[in-house]
Structure formats: structure tokens, C-alpha cells
Amino acid sequence: MPSKLTDRIETLEERLKQLKAQQQRIEARQRQLSSRRARRDDTRRKILIGAIVLAKVEQGVIEEAQLRSWLRGALSRPDDRALFRL
């Protein structure tokens, strides 16, 4: 009889181990999705802000020279600077 009980305990412990691993995979997937969503939202905000700033430059509300000054101060990578002909 004790052998049966021991087998049952081992079976339950193995099942618990499997469930914990499954829970960890689910939590990792949720973190990954949350991170993707945050990056997507950040990119969208940047695109919208850029569009607004460009529209304000076109409308004359912001001077193009001011925008170029901001870009010169903010962009350090050569490929980024080349994109704006700086």
C-alpha cells in the first residue's frame, strides 16, 4: 500500500511540475505580447508626433531652421543624419 501512495505522490509532483512549466510559458508569452504592444504604441506615437511637427513646419508655425537645429542636436548616427541631409 505505501508503494501505491508513493507512486501517486510522484505522479502528482510530476503533474505539478508540468503545470508550473506551462504557467511559466504562458506568463512569458504575455510579457512578450505586452512588450510588442508597448513598442508598437511607442512607434505610433513617434509617427504621429513627427507628422504633427512636419505639418506645423509646412504651415509656418514652426520654422524649418528650428526643426533642423533640433535634428542636428538630436541625431548622431551618420545614416540618420544623412536621411535629413545634415
Describe the structure.
This protein has 86 residues and is mostly helical. The chain has one domain. The chain has 3 helices and no strands. It is rod-shaped. The N and C termini lie far apart (82 Å).
Note the total helix count.
3
Total separate domains: 1
State the end-to-end distance: 82 Å
Order of helices and strands: HHH
Q: Keywords for this structure?
A:
86 residues; mainly alpha; 3 helices; rod-shaped
Q: How do the helices and strands line up, and which of them pair or pack?
A:
Layout: H1 2-59, H2 64-74, H3 78-83
In a few lines, what is going on in this structure?
The chain has 86 residues and is mostly helical.
